[in-house]
């Protein structure tokens, strides 16, 4: 390989709190990028890492590429401009749940709708960390935080459902600690043409410690999550004996070997199914009734905005009779004064 | 009836009717035909925000004023010689603009009891009620005659009635002895895909012309000869179109693609629309999801190496403020066009004002001075946009270009420039460097930093909203912050070394210096010329460069006993001058009515201080 993880690490001191989940996501990214460069034949100087404001948005300083640390909520709009202006660049974006889904919610859904070829890493720790512990749009109903001392009285967003609602073409979800899986996800996201949203369930050790612990802790993780891989059966559990089936229009958890159920009865994951029905059911699975779905849940092909812009430009250029400013100035209705 | 041909140097004609009556169209066609004939022209669309306000009401009245002349014309005129009113509401809203000698053309069919009442008249005699009964009133049954003209056209009744504007235009063409050819060819082009509409439209225009000619209903016709313009090729242009073209010209001269991220907003939308047409000239337009995305996509595009612009009006500039600070601290080239309208908040969206200057100067958090230039006429928008682009790209900074609804929608003949006469634009690109690239290292003269476009090997660096040291590393060091704040301000200040000196119209010394900026130029210039003709020692300094001010500003202001600053706001520029040059005392004349100045009020204001 031409690059190593070391090539993508900057000389800046990483200033996240010890134990913060963001460290692991950064590690997965810097490990994934050499592999991405290899597979897609990218040079390091074509990467631009963009962020908004928040703890996770410090990420561009820690990656040795071009970088833009912008303002709260606007990373997606900045990324959009970079990609449309120069489609040969590869844009990665780091943003938090408050940044992307509250103040930047509008840009987030519209980038997905346009299917701009950018890769969004959504660090979801369900809390505002940098402002020291206020509830976010993904905080659970009833969450007690500094601005909700008696508990929140509002439903959280489901980032995955938001992506589907905006006609998203790529959605993956993972835990900060899943170093290997996250590298895989980032490589798939890089290969995907269009907006790739990678939701990373991160742990904020200071203000929301254990937010995902119900299913994410080491001991129970295998029983309480399911890692989806394309073309593979939806099987999970420590003993690999649990699986997902369709009962009518609903998903159910079944045990292989019980009630005559065999592995062939278990659903197979197809991330490229255009119909979002199963994908939305997978996204909606919640612990304790279901395992929480991890991995690349949706990865479908569609036209991208940046390709369409480029194609339209070429088409208009080939048909136009006006090729420079002087021709434009002299076009249409003019008259001569002699 | 006695028929008089009036030989005039200049004539003002005002078309008004319901917002669906097609007044903007016939006003434009009349202006174009006059320009082709060789007149000097200036136009002023004066329309409501509602697309189709309730029929026949004052709130739905749409107007279009054209000033034509055989002499130099700099404003669309204050009071009109000919007033065309398609209904009682239009008459009621516009009668005050009719000169005592004016001819008033009415579609008398619309002056029934219901129409008169809907317009809010208290009696059944609108002319008396408005005290205009002594004007030359032409009561033409325009609707009836249009129906008669088109009864065999095959068009439905609605389409026929809609053609009454063309009948009216035909009448006006007779009044001004204008050829119908230009409008005929417009009709042929416009209805190329609906050929069944070509003949009826031509017929009704022709019939209107003949009606006016045959019935001798019109007492006064006008002879306005061609203006002795400088030789060359001309076209009509409005301010928004000129702005868009100036930006494309700057892109061409810099060799960069143009990226425009914008959100539709009155009265700036036409800039985005115009840019969207010209993809063949390397223009990308992105209609953003909101104003903030408009500027942020543009900032992203600037970082990626495009010539980036965003267009908006006052409310949009408010929404863009935070991002404007980002563009300033990241020192990226960006042009922000503010086509000002009446405020605050939504205000009167279609009416003109200069009330955003304070916002442009000061409307950001932190110490954030920004280069500001202003366009002063519809065609000057081209040069102003070009200059804004040149300054932004060569000085690596956001530049705000101030326009106004008045000049954005107004049009005038424009001698077509040659791009060979415009300077090259040379952004400070860097291709490679030895060792670590320091993004905020500055040129010692201009204080400009280098532009390292992503994709270049070895120049990887990070920019952002956090304060950094010259090496590009985040720093909250007090000394560093003080230095960076001062350096960024100095960079803007040093733009003064790269812009022309301030001109004075008239003598360099005298009794009163009239000071203005932006779209009031035509009115101020006309007023000052009139005063000078009367022997008054009055001159005009009209500022295109607001921040920084031209380097000879102090000298310009020092030659006069009195300085009178005239603006369509409560005194933004005068306050700015007071802060920058407190050694002078300033008088001010202000108007905040959503309307342009009237030449006579400026003349009076100057006379009052003489």
Concise account of the structure shown:
The complex is a heterodimer of chains A (338) and B (610). With 338 residues, chain A is α/β, with parallel strands linked by helices.
* Straight-line N-to-C gap of chain B: 47 Å
Beta-sheet strand percentage of chain B? 15-25%
CATH architecture field of the largest domain in chain B: 3-Layer(aba) Sandwich
- Span of the ends, CA to CA of chain A: 70 Å
Enter the CATH topology name of the largest domain in chain B: Pyruvate-ferredoxin Oxidoreductase, domain 3
What is the chains' assembly state? Answer: heterodimer
- The CATH class label of the largest domain in chain B is Alpha Beta
Provide structural commentary.
The complex is a heterodimer of chains A (338) and B (610). Chain A is an alpha/beta fold. Chain A has helices spanning 22-40, 75-85, 97-103, 105-114, 159-165, 179-191, 213-216, 221-224, 277-284, 305-319, 325-329, and strands spanning 47-51, 66-69, 90-96, 118-124, 127-128, 134-135, 170-175, 196-201, 225-228, 235-236, 242-247, 250-255, 292-299, 334-337. Chain A folds into two domains: 5-229 and 269-305, 3-Layer(aba) Sandwich (Rossmann fold), CATH 3.40.50; 233-268, no CATH class. In chain A, helix 3 crosses helix 4 (105-114). Chain B has three domains: 4-223, Pyruvate-ferredoxin Oxidoreductase, domain 3; 238-421, Rossmann fold (3-Layer(aba) Sandwich); 510-609, Rossmann fold (3-Layer(aba) Sandwich), CATH 3.40.50. Chain B is globular, with a radius of gyration of 26 Å. Chain B starts with a strand and ends with a helix. At the A-B interface, strand 2, helix 2, helix 4, helix 10 and helix 11 of A face helix 1, strand 9, helix 10, helix 12 and helix 13 of B.
């Amino acid at each position: 390989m031409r690059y190593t993880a070391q090539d993508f690490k900057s000389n800046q001191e990483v200033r996240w709190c010890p134990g913060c989940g963001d460290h692991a996501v950064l590690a997965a990214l810097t490990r994934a990028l050499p592999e991405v460069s290899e597979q897609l034949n990218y040079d390091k100087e074509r990467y631009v890492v963009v962020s908004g404001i928040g703890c996770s948005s410090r990420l561009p300083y820690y990656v040795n590429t071009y970088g833009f640390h912008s303002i709260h909520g606007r990373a997606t709009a900045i990324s959009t401009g970079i990609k449309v202006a120069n489609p040969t660049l590869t844009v990665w974006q780091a943003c938090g749940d408050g940044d992307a889904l509250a103040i930047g919610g509008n840009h987030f859904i519209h980038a997905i709708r346009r299917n701009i070829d950018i890769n969004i890493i959504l660090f979801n720790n369900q809390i505002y960390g940098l402002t020291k512990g206020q509830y976010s749009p993904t905080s659970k109903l009833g969450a007690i935080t500094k601005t909700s001392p008696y508990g929140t009285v509002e439903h959280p967003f489901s980032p995955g459902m938001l992506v589907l609602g905006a006609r998203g073409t790529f959605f993956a979800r993972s835990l900060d600690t899943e170093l290997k899986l996250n590298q895989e996800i980032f490589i798939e996201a890089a290969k995907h043409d269009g907006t790739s949203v990678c939701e990373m369930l991160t742990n904020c050790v200071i203000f929301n410690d254990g937010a995902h612990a119900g299913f994410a802790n080491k001991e129970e993780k295998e029983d309480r999550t399911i890692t989806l891989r394309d073309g593979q059966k939806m099987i999970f559990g420590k003993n690999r004996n649990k699986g997902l089936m369709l009962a009518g229009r609903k998903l159910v958890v079944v045990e292989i070997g019980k009630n005559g159920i065999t592995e062939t009865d278990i659903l197979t994951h197809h991330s490229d199914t255009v119909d979002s029905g199963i994908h939305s059911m997978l996204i909606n699975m919640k612990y304790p009734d279901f395992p929480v779905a991890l991995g690349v849940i949706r990865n479908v092909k569609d036209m991208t905005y940046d390709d369409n812009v480029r194609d339209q430009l070429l088409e208009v250029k080939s048909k136009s009779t006006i090729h420079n400013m002087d021709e434009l100035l002299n076009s249409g209705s003019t008259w001569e004064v002699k | 009836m006695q028929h008089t041909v009036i030989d005039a140097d200049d004539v003002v004609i005002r078309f008004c009717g319901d917002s669906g009556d097609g007044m903007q169209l016939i006003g434009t066609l009349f202006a174009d035909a006059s320009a082709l004939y060789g007149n000097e022209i200036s136009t002023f669309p004066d329309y409501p925000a509602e697309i189709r306000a309730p029929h026949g009401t004052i709130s739905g009245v749409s107007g279009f004023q054209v000033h034509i002349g055989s002499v130099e014309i700099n404003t669309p005129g204050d009071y009109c010689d000919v007033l065309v009113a398609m209904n009682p509401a239009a008459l009621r809203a516009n009668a005050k603009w009719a000169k005592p000698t004016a001819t008033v053309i009415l579609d008398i069919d619309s002056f029934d009891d219901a129409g008169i009442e809907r317009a809010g008249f208290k009696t059944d005699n609108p002319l008396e009620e408005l005290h205009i009964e002594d004007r030359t009133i032409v009561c033409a049954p325009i609707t009836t005659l249009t129906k008669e003209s088109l009864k065999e056209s095959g068009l439905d009744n609605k389409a026929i009635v809609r053609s009454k504007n063309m009948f009216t235009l035909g009448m006006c063409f007779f009044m001004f002895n204008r050829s119908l050819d230009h409008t005929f060819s417009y009709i042929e082009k416009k209805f190329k895909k609906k050929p069944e509409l070509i003949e009826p439209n031509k017929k009704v225009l022709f019939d209107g012309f003949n009606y006016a000619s045959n019935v001798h209903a019109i007492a006064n016709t006008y002879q306005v000869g061609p203006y002795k313009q400088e030789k060359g090729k001309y076209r009509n242009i409005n301010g928004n179109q000129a702005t868009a073209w100036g930006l494309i010209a700057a892109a061409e001269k810099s060799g960069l693609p143009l990226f425009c991220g914008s959100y539709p907003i009155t009265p700036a939308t036409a800039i985005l629309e115009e840019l969207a047409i010209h993809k063949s000239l390397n223009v990308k337009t992105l209609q953003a999801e909101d104003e903030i995305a408009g500027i942020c996509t543009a900032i992203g595009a600037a970082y990626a190496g495009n010539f980036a612009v965003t267009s908006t009006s006052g409310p949009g500039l408010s929404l863009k403020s935070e991002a404007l600070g980002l563009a300033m601290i990241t020192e990226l080239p960006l042009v922000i066009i503010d086509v000002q309208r009446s405020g605050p908040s939504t205000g009167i969206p279609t009416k003109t004002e200069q009330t955003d200057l304070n916002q442009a100067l000061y409307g950001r958090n932190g110490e954030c001075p920004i280069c500001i230039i202003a366009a002063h006429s519809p065609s000057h928008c081209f040069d102003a946009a070009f200059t804004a682009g040149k300054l932004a790209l060569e000085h690596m900074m956001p530049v705000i270009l101030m326009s106004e609804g008045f000049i954005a929608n107004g049009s005038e003949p424009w001698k077509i420039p040659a791009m060979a006469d415009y300077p090259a634009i040379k952004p400070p690109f860097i291709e490679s460097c030895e060792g670590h690239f320091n993004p905020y290292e500055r040129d010692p003269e201009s204080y400009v930093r280098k532009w390292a476009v992503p994709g270049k090997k070895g120049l990887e660096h990070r920019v952002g909203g956090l304060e950094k040291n010259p090496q590009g590393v985040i720093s909250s060091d007090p000394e560093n912050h003080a230095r960076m704040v001062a350096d960024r301000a100095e960079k803007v200040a040093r733009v003064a070394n790269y812009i022309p000196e301030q001109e004075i119209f008239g003598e360099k010394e005298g009794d009163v210096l009239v000071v203005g900026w932006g779209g009031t130029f035509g009115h101020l210039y006309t007023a000052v010329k009139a005063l000078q003709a009367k022997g008054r020692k009055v001159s005009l300094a009209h500022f295109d460069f607001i921040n920084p001010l031209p380097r000879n500003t102090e000298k310009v202001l020092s030659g006069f006993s009195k300085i009178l600053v005239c603006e369509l706001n409560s005194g933004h520029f005068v306050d700015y001058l007071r802060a920058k040059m407190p050694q002078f005392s300033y008088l001010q004349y202000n108007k905040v009515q959503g309307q342009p100045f009237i030449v006579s009020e400026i003349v009076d204001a100057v006379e009052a201080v003489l």
